[in-house]
Design goal:
By secondary structure, the protein is an alpha/beta fold. It has 2 domains: 103 residues, Alpha-Beta Plaits (2-Layer Sandwich); 108 residues, Rossmann fold, CATH 3.40.50. Helices cover 20% and strands 24% of the residues. It contains 5 helices and 12 strands. The chain has a 5-stranded mixed sheet. A 3-stranded antiparallel sheet has the order 5-6-7. Helix 4 packs across helix 5. It is flat.
């Protein structure tokens, strides 16, 4: 081992968006457990081509003891990655398993198929929305409908993924929607949520996010707001699979 320049990733800053992955020609970075990870020192040349592709500034180049960069090992590594990828039929996109490869795990193209012969049952489709606006940027933190309400803080895609979203999850709640990947000025979200806790009178928050790594930034925003607020309210987290099933729920 020698002291040389190598990439370092700050896991606290990384939101798992995956934008850095395709920028590394050596395949040294992968998304593992919702975070960007350096697969091995031997695959990293230390040039930092991935630095400009991290929207959170989580990637830096540091000097430390590291195994030497090995171009032959990189070649074998890339060949292994290519063997995992197969073309889709007629779509023109490479896929790993059933998911098309893209720069972000949350943007991979997936064809969802309903169960064969599943009946379309008659159901109550009445809207349960009790307020306007619903976008978090536009919501006043002291709106009267927040008083003593449970706030459903939902990622933008959730209502489209979950069948019966209004009846099962929205009924009786105030709603705020946001996208932790695409929305700007997210520091304002933390301040607004903290104001809703302290001054708006909300009594609880449920955060509903999709299973893709970048979506979980919304959970981090809610927890940051809770840490900033002077009141304590329970925060519940529900994770929704891309097929619409609610896979997990926990309180924090």
């Amino acid at each position: 081992m020698a002291v040389r320049e190598v990439v370092e990733i700050d896991e606290e800053l990384c939101d798992g968006c995956g934008d850095c992955v395709p920028s590394c020609a050596e395949g040294a970075i992968r998304i593992v457990d919702g975070k960007a990870r350096l697969v091995s020192d031997v695959y990293c040349d230390g040039l930092g081509a991935c630095l400009g592709h991290c929207p959170k500034g989580a990637i830096t180049v540091v000097r430390r003891q590291a195994e030497d960069f090995d171009s032959e090992a990189v070649g074998r590594h890339l060949a292994g990655l290519r063997s995992e990828v197969r073309p889709t039929a007629g779509a023109g996109l490479p896929v790993v398993g059933e998911q098309a490869v893209s720069s972000c795990p949350g943007s991979r193209v997936v064809a969802l198929r309903p169960p064969a012969g599943a009946p379309v049952a008659a159901a109550d489709v009445t809207s349960r929305l009790r307020q306007w606006p619903i976008q978090l940027h536009l919501l006043p933190p002291t709106a009267p409908f927040l008083e003593d309400a449970e706030l459903l803080l939902a990622a933008d895609c959730v209502a489209y993924a979950v069948g019966g979203f209004h009846q099962a999850h929205l009924d009786g709640r105030a709603l705020a929607i946001a996208c932790p990947k695409l929305d700007s000025q997210q520091e304002a979200y933390v301040a607004k949520l903290a104001a809703m806790i302290d001054h708006g009178g909300i009594r609880a928050i449920e955060v509903m996010v999709m299973e893709v790594p970048c979506c979980r930034g919304l959970v981090q925003l809610a927890r940051a707001a809770l840490a900033q607020a002077s009141r304590a309210v329970p925060v519940r987290v529900a994770v929704v699979g891309i097929g619409g099933e609610v896979r997990s729920a926990a309180r924090s």
